[in-house]
Amino acid sequence: MEPRHKILILDDETAWLEVNRETLLQLPSKPEVRTVNSGARAVALMDAEPFRLLVCDLKMPKMDGLQVLAIVRRRFPELRTVVLTALEDEEFRSRAYALGVDLFWLKTDIQQNPQMFQDCIESLLGRDMETGFRGIQSKSLMDIIQMECLSRASTVLRITRGPLVARLWIQDGELIDAEAEGARGEAAFQRILAWKSGTFENMPAEPARERTIFKPVNALLLESAQSMDEAANPTDPQSAEEAVHRKTIWKLAVVAREGAEFVVVTSANRQNEVDSWGTQAGAQLAAWTRRVTEVAKRLSDRLEAGPLLYALGNSVERQVLLLPRDEKSYLVAWPPDAPVDELFEKAKKLVASWDS
Amino acid sequence: MGFLTKFFRGHAAVQQLPAGSLTVNRDGKVVTSTIPSGYPQGLLRDIVRDVLLLFRQARDAQMPLAEFSIHFASLRITAREMRGGAVIFLSPHAVPAAPSQPDRL
Q1: Model's pTM, two decimal places?
Q2: So what's the ipTM on this one?
Q3: Most B CBs within 10 Å: which of A285, A299, A319, as the mutation test of the B interface?
């Protein structure tokens, strides 16, 4: 018999504690539910015994929910966390997700849809604790969709931007449906891509969802980039934000189209300027790129071997190709199984369309 | 005039590209080599130092490489990581032949 999961609910309102306790006790996995009404006591209790999930209020006296979550993330990184609050404020939602919480729920939403809340909690409890990373921050929506698709996940992404709510249904790594602003299918997906910021939540998968999208995500990305280009009126001065957003979509589309994993661009003239897409280690990779370029130049001069055409490296995880072009160097990463004979030509193609 | 020219004329020299392979340990010491012994040792030391440096810095960038190659217009340097040391292959490219003229009818 499997041990029962233990859930800790933290809220300074006793009435809410009792309501939540009753709700969570009805979960199919029959968890053990403990309650506590202050942050300090919650931390002490978690120190004393292991919990699987913490349901945490935000607005509390002395130690507020964000402080508790910050402590939890540091001391109990494997603990699943759910924020349950009456604060309808996007800033708090963003800050909570930045602290790596798994779900953010409003108390009013639970009253309206208690079954959905129970499904989400049950899904969280059932997820394997030993694998996977959490706490995604500052990722673009396309990064997140691509991660879900590449990992062959089945999930529903609930994306919130202020009052707007959209959903993306992903089944076995394929985008099968989208819903946003009254639209559905590809049209909804294009509208979601136009959102420049927001938050997202992983909801339980809905395998029975009717499929309305049949194109691969990469193809939809390209179409989106093209339609944005066409929609842009060159006579109107665009805001800097819109221009940056269009550029982001375009570059991600180029990376996805060519099957690359990431691109890091360094400039010979501007040492501190790094343009990296698809990797968090942009600065370190840029430093390595510069070093290879310097070494190649020095060896080229000393050995009289002619100019550097390209450099190629491989590891267990990926292959990287460094391509110098004009005053820039492009480091492009590919999956380890990509045909090595094609990498140079593919990199040239990618670089040619990079700044177009 | 001719006498002096005979003694002081400079020798035009074209540096050969290195060809062969060498094995180096983690300290950069050459263990085995098939590079002609007449090739300047200083240049070989430069190659070894730079190859080990690039492997080390790739590790620092969270990208430990098993192998990498630098392709110049006339030379390819290929290096395989070996427990901190490396096996380095130096392969000069043959000059590509000029495209043949199409046959005229």
Answers
A1: 0.50
A2: 0.80
A3: A299
